[in-house]
Design brief:
Chain A is an alpha+beta fold and 304 residues long. Chain A has 11 helices and 14 strands. Chain A starts with a strand and ends in an 18-residue tail after the last helix. Among the domains of chain B are: 178 residues, DNA polymerase, domain 1 (Orthogonal Bundle), CATH 1.10.150.120; 31 residues, no CATH class. In chain B, the strands form 5 sheets. Chain B has a 7-stranded mixed β-sheet. The chains are: A alpha+beta (304), B alpha+beta (625).
Chain lengths: 304, 625
């Protein structure tokens, strides 16, 4: 059971930093609360008493989606369901709706925030590889250091660890529009829905003007090691190459060993090869380019 | 703890209340507003029994701190149907039989409402996705899908509103679509389960459970717990004046652990206090000294000599042994052309009913103790309570509260004894509601079986002998094990004429969670092995799996292996129908696969399912302007 003496909802960044300064280590920040509440239960943290909970979801700077030129900015308190509903995000962050349908369920997606998902720094976070495939940048802010920016790929440093400093918040996520990119998200866990990923893979790709060659490919994996990773070797093997089953197969089977998880390494290795292949095929299909993969062995898809 | 001032609109009415700072929206609407239609099934955002609308958006209220939604507009299941005027969604759930135990149904109704509000034309795929956050354990979802499709078609005028009315019953109720009498109370959230019940002056209970699988209790010190303000009673085995040990068959289970614990999660002490938070604090203040004992978790090891012994009366750890002997199996095996041997393991299973165990106990003015709980065996529980409390049976009243899913799991008694004890000791009503985690660690599971199977057959498929040695994990206490062993043994060899049968069903004590009743009561495990074994035998003999069953099946008037004369035997018809609806292509298992002519034609076959109560029409029956 989660217990607290005060549950505070600052209405501005200034107010939030005042509260953080006042309560210090007696306080904890809350966003969607969908990780915090199940964590404070028997079998995990048990009964937890946090004197002051500071809920940052009402701060205007952490909310809203905007587009300036080619740059998209969304507040860190944006909930996952927005990736499915918001027209700007649907257009310019094409990988995120694929992430969102796999993320919990419609109802939890109304509470869970992208910032919370990032800060938790789970090795199996679903949102992080999606943002990595968008080459996203995180806007961090603290009273002491002001604003700084960090690539989403650099943000997590280990399980539950990140470059976030004491007294620092993720304010927003920014990325260049990926409008027109094909995208996909592959995920496998212990069951079909409402599940933490064992492995997940986000893919965003763009074809050249002829529609026959890969112009840009970005693939990110989570669940394979302490932090989510970009598969730059696969991306390099595809960029500029013709869109054929053989090229995809070669990229999927690159002798990479990105699997550094503590458990089920052989299983994850097999999944990674299949996910890279299927991720590319599905992303191509999302922009109307149908390729029959040369390897027919497929894991069951859930959301088709 | 500082309190919060909350003002919001709930079901169209303004609400202003002060509540605890850590309240979740679910706590607020259930406890502060007494709107108990929203249920707590898991408390972890998994099950959806608590789904409500916040500013028109469906959320899981167990995952929402109430402070977050201060000022919002909340709509609960009670708000859908003011003055009991059910919405088309609710009426459709009533019509199609979509509510069984009903515990998940308020959440399901809310999710269905959300889907159709968002897209009144939602197709089946969208409906399934929209219900993805809501779990039901009774219906298998089919009736719920039918309900949402029916509601959609009524809302869109595709079918007339009269489609929601009850079907007319002709000459016979058999085969007729009859609505459940209690469904309206379930689809509107009006029905109160034990955990929803509130009486004046009621205390809340929390329980101290064993962290060890096997240990002696050297001492229990409750003084600090009792000193906490708001704690009204702490009960331990020392408070039991009657016969504290109970059970369905053998009385081996203490009401609260006495001198020894035998599984992780066993109840040792219970606290009744003014609030759940105080009761939890008091549980932590109880001091217990344990002396850990070696524990055993495998029933076969438990049966071996020299290992840990759980109960003094059963030095071999055997709870109950059912032997069945018919004919001479050695002779039968000698006559066989082939002997097929195989080991089978089945796992323990959690029932996972959506309603965690709960109960409310209070003393009446005349000294009668009344206990409400979702008990699936109230007469047995009443007799057990009478013994535990040392009270005459006419002073013990058991009221069966609505069972939010049981599947046998609420048949074995676990907590009603100490709940009643606490109410008597505190002289106040006491309510106890399990968390999902407690429900999983503390109450009885399905028995896991280890089966050694030996079957002799002639080359033509006739069975000459069957030998089954079944060892099952009964966990720490007897519970329903004896009955489960009997049923598993009686039905083990299946509905087949076998001249020589030797069956042993042995229930064994281990330091695992007790095993008890669960759907089919042991028959599932033994039938699983027999039917699996017949498939293996069919493969070895090159026979069609249906054929090997037809060759051996009992006929009208057969005598079972336990000498029961049967009247009509329907296995022949069952096999015929199963072959038909499954699109079975005759042949031995070894020739299945690519040669099957029915595959590759028109894609996949429709899965076999019961005839739906509602199928959406292809075209509108009448055009609606």
């Amino acid at each position: 059971m989660l217990d607290c003496d005060q549950y505070l909802l600052p209405q501005s960044l200034d107010e939030a930093f005042d509260l953080i300064a006042t309560h210090g280590s007696a306080s904890q920040l809350v966003a969607g609360a969908t990780d915090l509440l199940p964590w404070a239960r028997e079998g995990r943290a048990g009964d937890v008493h946090i004197p002051v909970l500071i809920d940052i979801t009402r701060i205007p700077d952490l909310n809203g989606v905007s587009k300036e030129g080619n740059r998209i900015r969304l507040g860190a308190a944006t909930v996952f369901q927005k990736f499915l509903k918001d027209p700007i995000l649907r257009e310019h962050a094409p990988v995120m709706p694929h992430v969102a349908v796999w993320f919990a369920d419609d109802q939890l997606r109304q509470s869970a925030t992208i910032g919370g998902n990032l800060v938790n720094a789970s090795p199996a976070a679903d949102g992080t590889p999606g943002l990595m495939a968008l080459d996203a940048e995180l806007v961090l802010f603290s009273r002491a250091d002001g604003e700084r920016r960090v690539s989403v790929t650099e943000f997590p440093t280990g399980p539950s660890k990140s470059v976030l400093r004491d007294g620092e918040l993720i304010i927003a996520v920014e990325f260049d529009s990926a409008s027109g990119y094909g995208a996909s998200f592959e995920k496998v866990g212990h069951r079909r829905s409402l599940v933490i990923s064992t492995v997940c893979a986000a893919t965003a790709l763009k074809l050249d003007a002829s529609g026959e060659k890969f112009e840009d490919v970005r693939i990110a994996l989570a669940g394979v090691g302490p932090v989510p990773v970009r598969l730059s070797e696969c991306e390099d093997a595809l960029r500029g190459k013709p869109v054929t089953a053989a090229v995809i197969e070669a990229a999927a089977n690159l002798p990479l060993d990105r699997v550094q998880s503590r458990t089920r390494q052989d299983y994850r290795r097999e999944v990674v090869v299949n996910f890279v292949r299927r991720g590319i095929v599905d992303a191509l299909a999302s922009v109307g380019c149908d390729i029959e993969p040369s390897e027919t062995r497929e894991l069951e898809t859930a959301n088709g | 703890m500082a309190d919060l001032n909350i003002s919001m609109t709930v079901n169209g009415r303004s609400v202003e209340k002060t509540t605890a700072a850590n309240s979740r929206l679910l706590d607020f609407i259930r406890n502060d507003l007494n709107l108990t239609g929203s249920k707590e099934g898991c408390g972890a955002g998994e099950c959806g029994s608590c789904s409500v609308f916040v500013d028109g958006v469906l959320v899981k209220s167990c995952m929402v701190p109430v402070a977050k939604v201060d000022g919002a507009e909340i709509e609960t299941v009670e708000g859908l149907a003011p003055r009991r005027q059910m919405t088309p969604v609710q009426r459709a759930f009533h019509k199609t039989g979509a509510s069984q135990c009903g515990y998940c149904i308020p959440g399901m109704v809310m999710a269905a409402t959300s889907i159709l509000r968002e897209n009144p034309q939602a197709d089946l795929q969208e409906i399934k996705q929209g219900l993805g956050g809501n779990i039901c354990r009774c219906t298998g979802y089919q009736k719920i899908f039918e309900a949402v499709e029916l509601a959609r078609d009524v809302i869109n005028g595709k079918v007339p509103e009269t489609a929601l009315d009850e079907d007319e019953v002709g000459d016979s109720f058999v085969g007729a679509n009859v609505r459940r009498l209690d469904a309206p109370s379930k689809v509107t959230g009006a029905l109160r389960y034990a955990g929803d019940m509130v009486v004046p002056d009621m205390l809340h209970m929390q329980v101290l459970r064993s962290p060890h699988p096997h240990a002696l209790i050297k001492s229990i010190d409750t003084a600090d717990a009792e000193a906490i303000a708001g704690v009204e009673a702490v009960v331990t085995a020392a408070d039991i004046s009657g016969d504290g040990e109970f059970g369905v068959f053998v009385h081996d289970q203490p009401t609260l652990a006495a001198g020894k614990v035998r599984y992780v999660g066993e109840a040792i002490a219970a606290v009744a206090a003014e609030s759940e938070v105080i009761a939890r604090e008091a549980v932590k203040a109880i001091k217990i000294e344990f002396e850990e004992l070696p524990a055993v978790f495998d029933p076969k090891i438990a049966m071996a000599e020299g290992g840990p012994v759980l109960h003094d009366y059963a030095q071999d750890n055997v709870t109950y042994h059912v032997p069945i002997r018919k004919g001479d199996t050695e002779k039968g095996f000698a006559e066989a052309d082939v002997i097929v041997e195989q080991d089978y393991d089945t796992q323990p299973i959690e029932h996972a009913y959506l309603e965690p165990e709960a109960g409310l106990a209070y003393e009446e003015a005349d000294g009668t103790i009344t206990v409400h709980s979702p008990s699936q065996n109230i007469t047995h529980h009443r007799h057990a309570l009478s013994r535990i409390l040392g009270m005459p049976i006419n002073k013990v009243r058991m009221i069966m509260s609505p069972v939010g899913g049981g599947f046998g799991g609420k048949e074995d008694m676990h907590y009603q004894g100490f709940l009643a004890l606490a109410a008597l000791k505190a002289c106040r009503p006491v309510r106890y509601v399990f968390t999902r985690e407690e429900s999983i660690i503390a109450s009885a599971k399905r028995h896991g079986f280890k089966v050694r199977y030996r079957m002799g057959l002639k080359n033509d498929g006739r069975i000459t002998a069957t030998e089954m040695h079944m060892v099952s994990d009964g966990g720490a206490y007897g519970c329903s094990t004896e009955g489960v062993m009997r049923k598993s043994a009686i039905l083990a060899a299946g509905p087949y004429n076998i001249p020589n049968v030797k069956i042993d069903a042995i229930g064994v004590y281990t330091n695992n969670t007790p095993a008890g009743a669960m759907r089919a009561f042991g028959a599932l495990q033994s039938q699983f092995t027999t039917e699996s074994h017949l498939d293996i035998c069919a493969e070895k003999l090159g026979l069609d799996p249906f054929e090997i069953r037809r060759i051996n099946m009992m006929q009208n008037g057969a005598i079972t292996h336990t000498k029961q004369k049967l009247g009509a035997v329907s296995i022949g018809q069952v096999l015929e129908e199963a072959g038909k609806v499954s699109g079975w292509e005759a042949g031995a298992p070894i020739v299945r696969g690519p040669t099957r002519s029915d595959l590759g034609r028109d894609g996949n076959r429709e899965p076999c399912t019961l005839v739906p109560r509602y199928t959406s029409p292809e075209t509108p029956e009448e055009e609606v302007a």
